[in-house]
């Protein structure tokens, strides 16, 4: 999990999307997250994490519902939500941490 530490230990907010291809709500979020990433540019990062390929990490973070969205800044979790969100809401939340 040291790689995970490197991913989240940034001075910009990092939005993690825990998803699964078999989960309809998760796949619906892909387009939303592309819009969020485009709006943020270099002021933040959006990282998608497949729960089926990252079971240990998903378990360690107690990811139960999909999609689960978590924002980290400087290695600390600052926001977490399960379920679909719209792009404007996510962009607004991320801008609070820029």
From TrEMBL:
Residues 1-98 form the Thioredoxin domain. Transmembrane segments: none annotated. GO terms for cellular component: cytosol. InterPro entries: Thioredoxin-like_sf, Thioredoxin_domain. GO terms for biological process: cell redox homeostasis. Pfam families: Thioredoxin. GO terms for molecular function: protein-disulfide reductase activity. This is Thioredoxin domain-containing protein.
